[in-house]
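Continuing from the previous page...

OK, I double-checked the sequence for Alginate export family protein against my notes and this is the correct one:
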Amino acid sequence: MKKWFQGGIPWILPGLLLSQHGYGQFTLGAQLRTRTELRDGQGAPKLQGTSPAFFTSQRTRLMAGLNTYRLKLGLTVQDIRVWGQDASTINRTTTPDNNGFMLHEAWAEVLLTDTVTKDRRLALKIGRQELVYDDSRLLGNLDWLQQGRRHDALLVKYETAVWTAHAGLAFNQNKEYAAGTVYNPVPPGNYPANTNGGGAYKSLEFVYVSRKFRQSNLSFLLLADQFPKFHIDSTVTPAQKKWEASVHNRYTTGLYYTGQYNNLSWTAAAYYQGGTNSSAQDVSGSLLTGYLQYGFNRRVSAGAGADFTSPDFDPLYGTPHKFWGYMDYFYVASAFGNKGLQDYYLRGKWKPGSRFTAGADVHEFFSAAAIAGNGKRLGTEVDITATYTLTSMIAFEAGYSHFWSTPSLALIKQVNNASGNNNWAYVTVNIHPEWLINK
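Thanks. Re-ran it with the corrected sequence; updated structure tokens here:
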């Protein structure tokens, strides 16, 4: 494969580009990731008597990057689909809903300080990009989801060996208008635009500051997102939302702390959320989280943690699959009754060698608010995963999860005649080669 890049057109093009603009590095990459799933109550308790779903989804990505004097460029195109989704003779021009091809990333980063200044760095990054901060709880690329998450944004980055300070800005519009800035936040297909199932933001601003210490790190986040106001037009049947130019403003702020001492490591975070959300509701919510882990040796580690989110809190644009159970019952695509969440969990990891890793998590879930006529307990989830790395470019992953749900969970998830036993299993093949070309 390397010989093809050395002798073929993909080698000639970056070579010509770099020869015109000085020395640099050009990277090419690809990813083919398939995930075969058995869903038997994933996302919500299944109905009694329903049959499991079984399918294979595939992510196909092509990536290219350029790193040269005071400039970095990144490009990722991807195609996301389910095997058999398209007939082999489908006319994709007239069936746009089946078109899974999209531009995931396209950004440029310009270094504003001189390259000889080694102790500080000021840069401007602009374009379609992933926003990933801290543990991805509030801002993450949602890589578990085949299509992932990205933002069209401008980012100013100031970094030293100890400090990191980023300021970001995004402003969304549906198309090029001749007048006005009215924005329809409901994307085609009515897919949810954020973690908790809401519409897309019209604009977003954030400031992130992080300070490294000897064995720990402390960061601060202040994020504001705005959503278009609306009114109900009852002159049409059925009544419809009409979007306005003015906005509701919501803000989220808090601290994240992580550290390590010998074999003991920990994370803790606290966030507050206020303002008005996309549904025109005033919010005053909080998120508290803490996790403690101990490494017994190089092979075995275990930890315990607890999360609390109040009913008003929305975990923004993070990666909930990483935290609140792999079966994605909470804060994934749809709300769950605005009752908030308590999650108490144990986590274990076993790594007998460099290629194989296995893990097991146990979650006990409760609502944060009372549920009329029912208790707060929502259920218990067990997640078991195993990963085997064949080479640096090829990896296999498998997992099984079981959720013992309660009537309280079925009530807030609005599932009648729900089963108390729910299952989910998957097998993933991840092929991800990369090539580095120096010129």
